[in-house]
Amino acid sequence: MSIVFDLFFSFMKIGLFTFGGGYAMIPVIENHCVDKRKWITHDEMMNVTVIAESTPGPIAINCATFVGYRIAGILGAIMSTLGVVIPSFVLIFAISKFLDNFLDIAIVANAFKGIKVAVGILIVDAAINMMKRMPKKIFTIIIIICSFATMMVINIMSVRLSSIILMLIAAALSLIYYTIETRIKKGDKDCDLS
User: Fold this and answer.
1) This model's pTM is above 0.85
2) Where are the alpha helices (DSSP H) in the chain?
3) In a structure prediction context, what are the per-residue pLDDT tens digits for the chain, which is 194 residues long?
4) Distance CA 143, CA 152 (A)
5) How far is CA 133 from CA 41, 42, 120, 138, in A?
6) Burial of residue 14 (number of CB atoms within 10 Å: 0-12, 13-18, 19+)
């Protein structure tokens, strides 16, 4: 039972002290769950991130749910999810209830400007760490470069195109590529056996 409460309080701490949404939480979750607690491996964290991004719901909640399930089953998943959600819910509820013009307060507005920069750095850090651990295959590098270039063009040209469409295209291309690669390797093994 103590692991369930440990999961709850760990993810509550992550949810309470991480600003900027799911992408900003990824390095914090990775640091806590992989490096400090050794609950999951770096490879599992990378897989969790990809799956969490591909499934409905916020990425941080999906990551918390996976880690909780991996460590303590259904109860662990529930407690981890509650832990990461409760701080945000309570803060937003309090702000909406008691502070009508919260962002008009000068100190708060200035704090959020600094937080935006920190969040950007956390997201870039998460991306760099994931790229370091990825297998260095030419196809993977091409997908990364093409996706980055496409997103830059979309942002510069102010084109309305969801990043989900890019992810689906990249996923489809990867499936096609790796299916062909697997069949070629299988064909080579069949030739060796005969």
Assistant:
1) no
2) 2-17, 22-30, 42-54, 59-98, 106-133, 138-157, 163-193
3) 789 999 999 999 988 887 666 777 888 888 888 889 999 988 888 888 888 777 777 888 888 999 999 999 999 999 999 999 999 889 888 877 776 677 677 887 788 788 777 777 777 777 787 777 777 788 888 888 888 888 888 888 888 877 778 878 888 888 898 888 888 887 766 555 55
4) 14
5) 12, 8, 20, 15
6) buried
